[in-house]
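CORE FACILITY INTAKE
Project code: CF-77B
Contact: R.S. (postdoc)
Sample description: multi-component assembly, three entities in total
Requested service: structural model of the whole complex
Turnaround: standard
Below are the sequence entries exactly as provided by the requester. Do not edit them.
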Amino acid sequence: MPSKAIAAPVPTLGPPEGRGPSTRPVQRRTAPTVWRGGGLFHFSGVYALAVLIIVFAIVDSPYFLTSPTLKSILATSAIGGMVAVGAVVPFSTGMLDIQFGNVAGFALVLMTWLSLNSGLNDGVLALITIAASTAFGLASGLIVAYLRVSSLVVTLGMGTLALGCCYLAISARTAEADLSSWFSDIGRKTYGPLPLPVILLALLASLVHVWLEHTASGRRFRLVGSNPEAARMAGIDVARTQTIALTFSSFVAGVAGVIWTAQLGFGNSINGSNLLFPAISAVLLGSTQVRHRINVPGTVLAVLIIQTAVTGFNLHEGGTAAWPANAFSGVLLLAAVSIVAWNGRRQLRLAAQQAAEPSDAANRV
Amino acid sequence: MRSTARARTAGLTRFSGLYVLAIVVLVFWRLLRPGVWVSSQNVSVILSEASVVGLLAVAAVIPLSASLLDISFANVAGFAMGLTAYLALHTGWNTWLIGALAVAASAGFGLLSGLLVAVLELPSLIVTLGVSSVALAATQYLLDGQTLYPRARLAPSFLSLGTGQWGPIPIATFVLAGIGLAAWAWIEHTPSGRRLLALGGNANAARLAGVRSFRYQVLCLTLSATLSGIGGVVLLATIGTADDVSASGYLLPVIAAVFLGSTQIKSRFNVAGTFVGVILIQTGIHGIELKGFDQWVNYVFDGAVLIVAVIVSRRSSKYAF
Amino acid sequence: MSSKELFRLAGLSKTFGATAALRDVGLRIGQGEVHALLGHNGSGKSTLIKILAGVYQPDERTTAHTDGIPFALGDHAAAHEAGLRFVHQDLGLVDSMDTVDNLALGGHYLRRRSGFIDRPACTRRARELVESIGYRIDVTMPVGRLSAAQRTGVAIARALQDLDGRTRMLVLDEPTAAMPATEADRLFEVVAHLAEQGLGILLVTHHLDEVFRVADVATVLRDGRVVATRPVEGLTEHGLVDLMVGDQLEQAEHARHDQHALTGPECLAVDALSADAVYDVSLTLARSEIVGVAGLDGSGRVELLEAISGNRRRSGAVRIGGARVAANRPHAARRAGLGYVPADRTRNSTFADFDVTANITAAGVREYLRAGLLSARAERREAEQWIDRLGINPPDPSARVDSLSGGNQQKAVVARWLARRPAVLLMVEPTQGVDVAARESIYAAVRLAARDSGVLIASSDSEELAAICDRVLVLRRGRIAAQLRGSELTAAAIDRLCLSAVEPEAAHA
């Protein structure tokens, strides 16, 4: 979004100085970035969420605005939210990761199977599961980054491999996990209104957000996503970045799957696939919220919106059908990107109407 | 000089994927069923299963020829399948009429995708992802979590589409052959098909030369959804039941076939090459099923083949995604 | 060649904002005449072609004539109707398709009664078309695999295929810019062949040898005006160069470069480097030295720097501070202390989704960490410094970089590398798209950078090179043809050496 011009005069700077802390008072020239470009659209998601809550509060009363409902929304958001936040990292580097759903499902199944077939401590089993899950991401990352092939197709294949491993372990049945109580508590414990998985989600989201926005490596990842060629020329190791991104996403999927096991208490091969579409829709929908690019708070907001809509709807209809999640994710995604594109085109048209820069045209003729 | 040398290498790489997979498949078969090779019964079973994959693969390859990615084909097929079953069970209408309605509804999804891509210039991946979710939701809504068994309510003539045969060859294969031939003829041998390929090759140059990209974008996404709908209907006729997961299982073998096919016959996404890809993958899958391997081998094979296919195809040609 | 007039144009002017790109330009081309259009960067050559092609409109409604019939300039359809055909530098071919398809794309397909393409007939027709202009090409091979001259041939064939009746004029815009000499020869045989058939040809070129080889008349543009239109027969290369370059006195307002009496230790050594369009080039660069690389398009000027920086495959050795740098790995080169400001700014360099600050800090994000986190303050301070120093406009560190004009974007990219003070700084066309007033700030910044770095600048602007470089290497056809330094280092001398195979002193043959 083009910003407004600055009114303050430009101070003249002297000869190059060292990079020590500034002794001059810092002049706030512009408002903080997050508010730039006009608040209304960037936070439309918050308004949409508010509207949804009000609508369902009215329609579903007295059941909607209650603690169990809130907990249910949050609890169901937790796992999907975690994998979505994990997926934000490869998406930010410009790759498409569609394996995380099946990798989370794999972790769920593996943890379940291990609990039934191994006498080791649940904590150890969790670590094994997470390591195995991470391996999928590492493999995809290496293939995509160093063989320079399509991330969409490789993660599609790798995700299916992960699904195959699920079937190898427990084929098509549902297996009850044999978990120690402290492990199951991870899924069930609540602190006030917040289930532990939700707290973990909040923690993960904060960490990833801070990393992405405020660290040097996070910035480099985003630069790669913006223009891989320019990033390469600016000295960033693009291949390594891409590998790490996919590995991390699978790592998070593994962790989420382990927590999922604690939540559900059983494992099933098809659960993972159901995570995928809503989570990707959340990441893409989230890229229209808060900032007009892939970002963590937007993703979390999108997850909440979709889950609130689904829960409210299911409450109203009195059921737990599978379709509302897919319907809402699909429709909201299409609506959001369409609106952004429409606004974008309008702005492009306006910019084009203003005269082209004369000096550009005359130079280098 | 330079051009002939390059042509020779390209020819070699072009068929290398074919050779590798052919060898793998042959070895597999020899190991699994020594003595049994290709009998007419085997052929007809392979062809039957391959027909749905083939239909969906043709559906997918049309937008790919214009460098558009349509990943909604599987869920749109599932929708057509579910809608047909649902209408068959809940209304007394003629089965063929129902089938036609389902295909028309599928076309509607494609039209939506096409318009969003053409008018708003949205990336086709995101649009078809969203449409795919909506199609899946629609299927799940109709099916209400159950598997439908409409076989008794489907006209026998309709069912023969899936299970009938003319001689040793399933009718579904004839349908596939007809549609595949039409698609091939259109893309390779008509001016509009060539313009589609030009858009896929260099959209800017094509537009400058006067190709109306809007028209073509809408057209190929609508076509792909229509063919997916037909695929879904044929699938229903073949297996006689409808659920919300059968069709999504086709996403991967189809994409594998299409990518593998992009290295065969021509070094770009193309219909004839896709046919080769389908046959290779189906033979492999069938070999596995014959042996009685569990479901998991299928998935692992699918996943591994896809990854191998994309690595091989990338060596011969470059694509944006 | 008949002297019947084919094309006539008079009184064409075009201004962009405050700059007059063309002033009262007139042109006359006869039937069967090959007319060369010459002029330096900034002479107005491209603007003229773009107006003919209908991309720009002239200041006032101007009419041109073909065969005596008038048509309005600045309208693509009218130009097409009038029989003008263009082959631009970007040929507009679909590389994955063969010649038959590319020709048909611009025209139509021959079809059978059934509606399907009659492939054999189309192939035959394509072959005939291509042969009629003098080429022999495998028309079933994807165009991307043809040589540069053959591709240009296909583009010419496509441009000419649908003309009948009205006499035609073909405009070739720098067709040999990316072609080796042997292929250019073949192209000009074709051009001569076409001229014999009565076509009028307007050839825009930089290469003087081409003018003498194939052109009948030459028009020279300078500063937007036609300075001469003469039959080539009476011209000499030296004379042409004089017309193009003029008797320029060294302009006092160009800041003279500091004579660095003391230059530092050697920071860059290039040994027997060969790459696409570069043959066996060796050079050294010392710290505090500013060395220019000059040459025409296709001389290897740009390719050389791309190869050194690792963005182009190369053979040969590159050493920075004595240590060998791995080839073909741009980020390794960067780590070794090499900064690279490429020419194609938007595609290669700007991070369009980010603001000016992030674009400036992109090559060394780690420097702005405080306690493990990026300090917005530190980044902004860096950005403000360069915004001020280079005069980036609007002076807003949080403006999205793609909201800036092209020239300002370029400044931001230059700042990105200046901020890093690398051991070696490579710059390709550093002031491309930057207006004249702002160039001085970039030059000043480059001189500042040279205190700590060795700077190598590839530029097609000889005035720029003369103003800031200590010495300039002139490339021709991929090899170093000459080096200028000290008092011989003038813009005119650079131009002459780029254009001409003849040394200034040995001029008149």
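Facility notes:
- Chain B touches chain C through 22 residues (CB under 8 Å).
- The mean pLDDT of chain B is 83.
Invoice: internal transfer
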